[in-house]
Design goal:
Largest sheet: 2 strands, antiparallel
Order of helices and strands: HHHEEEEHEHEHHHHH
Distance between the termini: 34 Å
Number of strands: 6
Shape: globular
Radius of gyration: 16 Å
Strand order of the largest sheet: 1-4
Strand content: 5-15%
């Protein structure tokens, strides 16, 4: 039950983080505030709660996936395991496991873990095809919900990460690219117009 039904991607919980971070990084927080508001408008609490749920890992990222012989051998760190809409794990998997990065991910370094992901459309398609092939097809409403959920997941990564950084460097941490939503979601064929329009009008 950590942080309620939407976990770390709960818009309200992230707005509380923004309030805590504002004294050290007010200007850098604007883009995150806009993305959260736009995503929350598109994926409301009611819609999120209505999506197909399953037992999720809750913290899918490279440091929690053990690989042996080129195959997944185990998932570790089950502290956030819960019964939630399955897009919760899928959005994090797309951001953190279907992307390339400027430098290899170091799970023990928050700067490395939250560096800009370059989401690879071919990897996303392969991942989702494999997921569907396991026998539980994604519904159209889930595919549509991936758009705002990816943005909420990304904002969660950066905002929670900023809380682990010394106060004087939080602005620098949050100001790192990306500054445009399309650079995150273009690889999954997501229309960024709603988010970009919101940001432009802010």
């Amino acid at each position: 039950d950590k942080l309620g039904p939407r976990g770390e991607t709960d818009p309200g919980a992230m707005r509380q983080l923004i309030s805590k971070l504002r004294p050290d990084a007010a200007e850098s927080l604007l883009v995150y505030e806009n993305w959260i508001s736009s995503a929350a408008d598109e994926l409301t609490d009611g819609v999120f709660a209505s999506l197909p749920s399953t037992l999720i890992h809750g913290d899918i990222q490279p440091a929690n996936i053990l690989i042996d012989g080129g195959r997944v051998a185990a998932l570790v760190d089950m502290d956030w395991c819960d019964w939630r809409p399955r897009i919760y794990d899928l959005a994090f998997a797309i951001l953190l496991c279907c992307a390339t990065h400027e430098t290899p991910i170091d799970g023990g370094d928050i700067w490395s873990l939250t560096q800009r992901p370059e989401v690879q459309g071919n990897l996303v398609r392969l991942f989702l095809q494999s997921y569907n092939g396991c026998g539980w097809q994604l519904e159209a409403v889930e595919i549509e919900a991936l758009r705002p959920q990816i943005m909420l997941s990304w904002c969660s990564c950066r905002l929670a990460g900023a809380m682990k950084v010394e106060a004087k460097r939080r602005g620098e941490f949050l100001a790192r690219p990306p500054r445009e939503m399309n650079s995150l979601v273009s690889g999954v064929g997501v229309d960024s117009s709603k988010f970009e329009a919101s940001r432009a009008s802010a």
